[in-house]
Specification:
5-stranded mixed beta sheet; alpha+beta; 499 residues; 12 helices; elongated; 30% helix; 9-stranded mixed beta sheet; 23% strand
Amino acid sequence: SLTGASVRLEDDRGKNLEEGFPSSCPLSTSGEQMTATIYAFKKGKAETYRKNEGIIFTLNGQTHGHLTPDFFTRKRVGLSYLADSILVVIDCTRFSRRAIEVLFMNSRDRLSGGDLRLELECALEEMLKRHQGLRDLKERRRREQTEAKLADSKPLEEILKSLLKKSPVLASLFLQGQRIHNPVKTLKVREEEKRFEGQQYPTYFKFKGKDYGEILVRSTAINMRSRIQFETDANNDYFSRSTEPGEFSLYTQNSEGRTPVANYVGPNLQNGVGTLSVQLPTTCQIGDTLNFVAVATDPSRVEPFENSFVVHVQCEAETTGQVGTRRKPPSREAGNEREIPAGISLPNIVKVYEQDWEEYNPPFDKFTALRIKNAGAADENGQNGDEQTVYDFFVNMDNVYLKSEIKPSGDDLEVTRARFMYGLVLVGLALLQQEELDRKRKQNAASEEEADEGPEANIEERVQQVTTAIAPVLLPMIESLGELDEESSAPIVASGDAT
């Protein structure tokens, strides 16, 4: 039962939760109504309330399944810096009997597969990625961990770039994409003009920057979500609190009346601003005009807040497979386009030394070689899906195998360290490149079943595992292969010719 944890959070939230949390967000997937409560904990406090749960699904206060914290590290979420500090509780009490049977297993230890789960995960990715409070907190945590160390990233980046340019193969792999410079702006947390003082029962709920009752008009590409912002004086937990919570509903409206919208996320309340993300109906066509009515109410109100907005459906926008887009049906006709790497951005490199190992969660140790963290998109406010992910690379400069190699060399200490660092960075870049190619292959698969098969791989864990395994042989391999010449390789060549 989740009741015990909920009570403890309510009783002691000031000591454990970050300011502005918990936050609430209604959402609907395939017509199934849910309410999410997002808890963001202070550093080191999350372990008290969760073990291997990142997102918990409940029915009448009882846990019926969960997703692990790996969900927060997904590329389409971009909250790696908060993966150890977030807990999301999804109240599924309003689910239909059929949805309960489809999504939950009798064991209550995991969720079933299928279309409903995939659509639900897509909605959760959208909710977490666009949550302003989480984005601000992520930027603050990243700034605390990397701000001083990233000051040395520029010269490291230039050296790496020059190394890549010396090899046509490496340049074709990693330098085709546009360089995303060290995203200084993502390190700056938004400054609130004044401290937000929320109300238990809001006195207004309207479109941001509009008078109440004014109709909002928005144009949206047919393959994108339409995002609407509200402003209100409601508390952040208005939709999810245990006592007299608010309710939100979204409808399309025509001459025949109102029809509930099946797929939306929000409003995602955070300090007076609520972001609503609406998936356009699959039946709509380019040129259509869609009329929506958003309704918010609570037990204190005689008349609900009603806000009407109009969406003009525009031509399809180019996307890079980002969250919130509608998948384009794959073509079954043979084409002449070949798959080529699109290029990825050069990373921000951070050197980690033994005295700083304990600052990381989990801590570095003598065998750790390289870790990467998703720092989010270069422009997370982009509406066209052309966001490029930025990664921070953390290289362990006190790795046991590196230290064992630099002891006898003496004079070449800095060269040895550079070889180790850039060798690991190249391996990490290669793994990121392969992960991107695998994702594109799945998108171009011949059928939806093949494209959606299997869970998303955790690239951050994969990079750590592979680089830990390669660290013992990396420097000896570079040294030995560099000493090969025509004479020493002659037996190999001769053997090949004989074959």
